[in-house]
């Protein structure tokens, strides 16, 4: 399973990227901004229904323009046609040519706006649109025309309010799934069965010492593999969020270091020093890839595919291409599976490998250019309903799935289509093509809304859930607390983040423990000199404002 979206979520675990939380969507993700399921009174989708009651079947056909930063494909496949059939709404997708962020800024500056716009929820662009009056408040529209929106979103409507107390957008991939981890230490199953057979089947976490011993035993037994030096542990240096987020999870660290209700940068936590010194020891002892810091994703995957690597960090799905290559040549036991490692003195149930937000990935709003916001809200209400969710994510009843014994059951050819050619099948069928207003979790019959990503789990998914489900924690309150873009504090924060990024790497590759400690101390000193206190004040002001708004 691929996933730009999921990998960015995982990167949210590292505070160096805290101001960039939120992320870009991807039609091939499994919705990792997860949520717990909640019941909705909506009826399940039915191919026999000519129109959704909430959509206004007796109203005249209407065309709505929709800018979706994730796709520019025409709204004309089977699912699209069924949506139009049930709502009377035809969607004209605006092609996001070039950089979607630049296009969004250009549309705002020129006031050349579509009827509906989808953008990153976590970035400054949403605030810009709201400040400019480009998005209309949705509260009254939801109250009058959005009963399913109210039912499905529930408390999310409270949590996604703007500081003036109004809702200007609805998110997608919203809701918290507590049992869906997104990362850990990924270890080759065949080598684990050989070197630590009691851990291979999962369910028993490694201690820090056990993990170090595993890396050493691999290096001793296999100094070379296929004529190349073996690598006990490698990392994707281009994805520091996933790399450091894995080790942070091991030590139970979160996005910020919180003391007495006050937030500080995570690197100020004493456990963060312990973490970096542990990494430094592994590096100095030759157990971490000497080139880890300059690894790009492609070279990292090539190393994993070579068969010379025992373990790596990051989201387990990010190793998909490498696992495909290893499985093709040598079978499923050659693949990497996600395991938990627990630092000394940390409760295994308090590990934090999987920071997640229930607030969603993208923001979808009605713009001031929309001439019929009432009809648009009816359309949105249908898509957000359980009926609409299953249509978007499962396809059409009687064609893509059937209702059996009160449950949604996918047809075998539908599941096979995703297995054979995920992207091609999405485009051809329309299933999961538009992930608008999608809720994580399960419908009222217990089947997941996300058919492709949640219904039929592979062995790697199952192992990750077995080993790391209790490491998931709700990151809602810590999201996007940094200064607003363009402010002096935002520039200061960028300086502080750059200092942290550079300094953390220096600590990890230091030649001695003394040098590592010295580099760490210098980082903290340099951060203060750069103005970290001023940035932390803004972060705490935003934090308190958010908690107050959520009451």
Protein model, in words:
This protein is of the alpha/beta class. It is built from 23 helices and 19 strands. The strands form 7 sheets. The protein has a 5-stranded mixed beta sheet, with helices on both faces. A 4-stranded mixed beta sheet has the order 9-12-5-13. Strands 6-14 form a two-stranded parallel sheet. A hairpin with a 2-residue loop joins strand 10 and strand 11. Helix 17 packs across helix 18 (422-429) and helix 21 crosses helix 23. The chain is globular, with a radius of gyration of 24 Å. Residues 1-55 have low confidence and may be disordered.
Describe how the helices and strands are arranged:
Elements: H1 4-11, E1 62-68, H2 78-87, E2 89-94, H3 100-110, E3 116-120, H4 124-131, H5 139-145, H6 147-153, H7 156-159, E4 170-171, E5 185-188, H8 189-195, H9 197-200, E6 206-207, H10 208-221, E7 224-225, E8 228-229, E9 231-234, H11 240-251, E10 256-259, E11 262-265, H12 270-284, H13 297-305, E12 309-312, H14 320-330, E13 336-339, E14 341-342, E15 354-356, E16 362-366, H15 373-384, H16 386-394, E17 401-404, E18 407-410, H17 412-420, H18 422-429, H19 451-455, H20 459-468, E19 472-474, H21 488-508, H22 513-530, H23 532-550
Helix pairs in contact: 1-11, 6-15, 11-12, 12-22, 13-14, 15-16, 17-18, 21-22, 21-23
């Amino acid at each position: 399973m691929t996933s730009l979206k999921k990998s960015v979520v995982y990167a949210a675990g590292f505070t160096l990227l805290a101001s960039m939380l939120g992320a870009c969507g991807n039609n091939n993700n499994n919705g990792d901004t997860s949520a717990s399921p909640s019941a909705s009174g909506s009826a399940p989708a039915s191919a026999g229904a000519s129109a959704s009651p909430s959509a206004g079947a007796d109203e005249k056909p209407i065309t709505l323009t929709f800018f979706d930063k994730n796709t520019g494909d025409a709204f004309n496949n089977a699912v699209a046609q069924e949506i139009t059939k049930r709502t009377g709404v035809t969607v004209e997708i605006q092609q996001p040519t070039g950089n979607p962020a630049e296009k969004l800024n250009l549309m705002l500056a020129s006031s050349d706006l579509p009827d509906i716009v989808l953008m990153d929820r976590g970035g400054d662009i949403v605030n810009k649109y709201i400040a400019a009056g480009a998005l209309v408040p949705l509260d009254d529209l939801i109250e009058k025309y959005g009963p399913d929106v109210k039912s499905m979103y529930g408390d999310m409507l409270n949590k996604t309010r703007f500081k003036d107390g109004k809702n200007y957008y609805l998110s997608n991939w919203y809701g918290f799934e507590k049992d869906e981890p997104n990362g850990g230490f990924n270890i080759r199953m065949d080598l684990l069965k050989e070197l630590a057979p009691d851990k291979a089947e999962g369910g028993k976490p490694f201690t820090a010492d056990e993990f170090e011993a595993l890396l050493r035993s691999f290096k001793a037994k296999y100094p070379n593999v296929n004529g190349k030096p073996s690598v006990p542990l490698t990392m994707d240096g281009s994805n520091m969020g996933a790399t450091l987020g894995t080790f942070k999870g091991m030590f139970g660290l979160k996005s910020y270091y919180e003391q007495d209700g006050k937030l500080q940068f995570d690197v100020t936590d004493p456990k963060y020093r312990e973490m970096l010194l542990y990494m430094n020891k592994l590096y100095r002892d030759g157990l971490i890839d000497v080139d880890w810091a300059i690894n790009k994703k492609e070279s990292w995957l090539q190393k994993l595919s070579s068969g010379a690597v025992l373990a790596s960090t990051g989201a387990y799905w990010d190793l998909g291409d490498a696992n495909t290559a290893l499985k093709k040549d040598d079978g499923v036991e050659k693949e990497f599976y996600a395991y938990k490692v627990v630092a000394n003195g940390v409760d295994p149930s308090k590990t934090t490998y999987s920071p997640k937000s229930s607030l969603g990935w993208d923001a979808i709003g009605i713009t001031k250019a929309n001439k019929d916001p009432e009809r648009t809200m009816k359309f949105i209400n249908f898509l957000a309903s359980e009926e609409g969710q299953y249509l978007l994510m499962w396809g059409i009843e009687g064609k893509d799935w059937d209702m059996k014994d009160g449950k949604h059951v996918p047809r075998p050819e539908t599941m096979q289509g995703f297995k054979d050619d995920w992207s091609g099948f999405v485009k051809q069928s329309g299933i999961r093509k538009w992930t608008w207003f999608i809720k994580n979790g399960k419908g009222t019959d217990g089947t997941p809304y996300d058919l492709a990503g949640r219904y039929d789990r592979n062995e790697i998914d199952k192992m990750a859930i077995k080993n790391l489900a209790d490491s998931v924690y709700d990151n809602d309150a810590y999201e996007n607390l940094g200064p607003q873009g363009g402010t002096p504090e935002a520039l200061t924060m960028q300086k502080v983040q750059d200092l942290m990024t550079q300094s953390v790497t220096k600590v990890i590759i230091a030649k001695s423990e003394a040098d590592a400690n010295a580099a760490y101390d210098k980082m903290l000193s340099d951060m203060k000199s750069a103005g970290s206190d001023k940035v932390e004040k803004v972060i705490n002001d935003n934090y308190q404002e958010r908690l107050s708004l959520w009451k």
